[in-house]
Amino acid sequence: MEVFKPLYKLVSTAQATPPSPFNPLSLLPGLITLTPLVTIAERTAQRGTSPLDSLVLAPGLHLQPTANDLHKGEYPACAALTSGYVFRVENPATVYFLQRISRTGCLTDLKLSSQASSSGFFPTRDEALASLGYYAAAGCSVLAALRIYALGDIWGFFFVSNLILIRLINFFVLRRRSQPGWFGAPEPGVQGDLFILLSQDRWVRIRGLVDDLKALTSGTWLSEPTTLDAFLGAVARLLVYANVAVGGHATDAGVCIIVSMLLVNSGLLAFHNVRTRKLNMYGRTMEAVGEPKEYFRRRDLAEQLIKESGRDDWAVAMGLIVKGVKSKEKQEGVRVTM
Questions:
Q1: Cβ distance 133 to 275 under 8 Å?
Q2: pTM value > 0.70
């Protein structure tokens, strides 16, 4: 085919001529790729995986499988205001989303729906800007690859191709590991109301169907890797480090294009993450309702939720109140000892 003739010529030339001398500046693409940024992992935790991810090439792409660790090991206490049961949120991606969207000293209200998108036909401003940043990053990668191909930089082209291959491998592995698992017994049609107590005095309330709440709070998001998953993950990580040597023979023009692509895509992906206000998982969407409401103290929040739910057993189990003990502050005032 006519389209591949330049590539055939390029490969033949590379085989017939001695390798180009090592260029220290060509190490920049590989070193920038290895920068431990978590923008790709953050995007994965909030939006899941997509085949288009293979074209979004940015620093830290080898850290995408660590998206399951972004919650920093926190499993916050959670109370069902309708039944009084207290348990923990076990889904790491949900915990990370709650950490991002909540604020200290404030109650953040969230709604959970079973639709893939709850904003109707037209996207919101944040959704449009987030999508623009994501698709712009994919387009930037395509333009960079085409430009390097047109320059005849075989090593630079192989470098970009390896990055795409790494992203494809991670997509395949994460898609296998993110299949729906255990959510508990189904309770169709039942409405639920959860109160979650996060670290740093951040409070979240989520309302929706019980089955939807279970899907996003129970079980796990990424299952333990199988032997095949672990093998492919190791191959992808080795390719990242091997790519540093591949980029060492790229031309100066190719280096400039690759470095520019990585830096621009990093900014675009960070912009996408900042504008993402929803958590999409298992065909369900979780999003904030209104602005976070600030409280002077936790007891005020507990008393309001007890009044709304009509029960206080959950508040006692979470340690927000003491059962049967009246507040001395209301009866005697606050005594301060200097």
A1: yes
A2: yes
